[in-house]
Recover the amino acids of this structure.
């Protein structure tokens, strides 16, 4: 029967420990690595303190924006009428005075022909008897009626008010239009482009002319452009008033849920480049704009009480 070992340690461990010349260490540190680690941590700590003391956190006024074409004329209906023909297409170049849209004018044409016939009959009477005063008065009245009928026929043809490109054609043949409804738009040849941004109204005191503003077109991520602010609205307006300014064609695509200030900036070109390809700006393109309005030292963000000390003293 084997003898029991009175020691709580295994005999092999006791023998190995009795034969070893030096004690073991739980963690063996290299003096070189310890020295480099110390200096590295010291440099990182000092750099962090310096960055917190000199660095700044920037605050931006951010809001939706839209591309607008200046010198654009919207043509609207001045009377109830039915479209007969649309003589142009979107993007077509037209000259000043060129017919764009024709309305049905059967009643106006019939009225003009009736007055013209009566005028010719009275004129014949006047030629037969130049002393006929009644025929002379009838000619004067019929001449005025004929001019009025001709004017009404002329109004039934919408012509280009200036040379330019046709855009935003809203009508089709056979469509009935009411007073004030949009027919189409004509963009002048010398038209320029602007960016209209709707920034939060609380930033109005911080905005100023000449301040840089960056924008990114919706659908073209990370394609940033920078412009300078040309004009700033004098008032902070509500969402309804801002949408009324943008117009029904654009306002429906932009979400506005707070009072805003309208900011305008001119675009230096009518084209932009994305992924190596050149594209044209178009009226109504949506974007996201931001302007840097304030910068605050990081140390004041970490230690808010220091702000009171700097402003008012200890």
């Amino acid at each position: 029967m084997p003898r029991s070992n009175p020691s709580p340690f295994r005999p092999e461990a006791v023998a190995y420990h009795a034969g070893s010349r030096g004690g073991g260490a739980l963690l063996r540190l290299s003096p070189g690595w310890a020295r480099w680690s110390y200096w590295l941590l010291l440099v990182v700590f000092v750099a962090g303190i310096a960055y917190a003391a000199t660095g700044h956190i920037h605050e931006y006024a951010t809001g939706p924006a839209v591309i607008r074409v200046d010198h654009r004329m919207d043509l609207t209906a001045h009377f109830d009428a039915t479209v007969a023909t649309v003589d142009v297409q979107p993007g077509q170049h037209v000259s000043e005075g060129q017919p764009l849209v024709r309305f049905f004018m059967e009643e106006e044409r019939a009225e003009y022909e009736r007055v013209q016939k009566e005028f010719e009959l009275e004129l014949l009477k006047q030629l037969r008897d130049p002393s006929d005063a009644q025929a002379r008065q009838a000619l004067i009245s019929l001449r005025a009626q004929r001019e009025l009928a001709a004017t009404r026929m002329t109004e039934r043809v919408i012509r280009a008010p200036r040379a330019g490109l046709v855009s935003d054609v809203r009508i089709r043949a056979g469509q009935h239009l009411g007073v004030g409804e949009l027919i189409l738009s004509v963009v002048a040849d010398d038209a320029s482009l602007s960016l209209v941004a709707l920034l939060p109204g609380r930033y109005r005191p911080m905005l100023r002319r000449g301040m840089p503003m960056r924008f990114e077109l919706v659908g073209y991520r990370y394609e940033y452009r920078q412009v300078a602010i040309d004009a700033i609205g004098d008032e902070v307006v509500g969402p309804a008033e801002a949408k009324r300014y943008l117009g029904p064609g654009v306002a429906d695509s932009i979400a506005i849920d707070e009072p805003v200030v309208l900011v305008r900036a001119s675009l230096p070109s009518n084209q932009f480049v994305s992924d190596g390809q050149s594209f044209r700006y178009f009226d109504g393109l949506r974007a996201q704009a931001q302007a840097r309005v304030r910068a605050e030292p990081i140390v004041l963000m970490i230690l808010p009480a220091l702000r009171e000390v700097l402003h008012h003293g200890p």
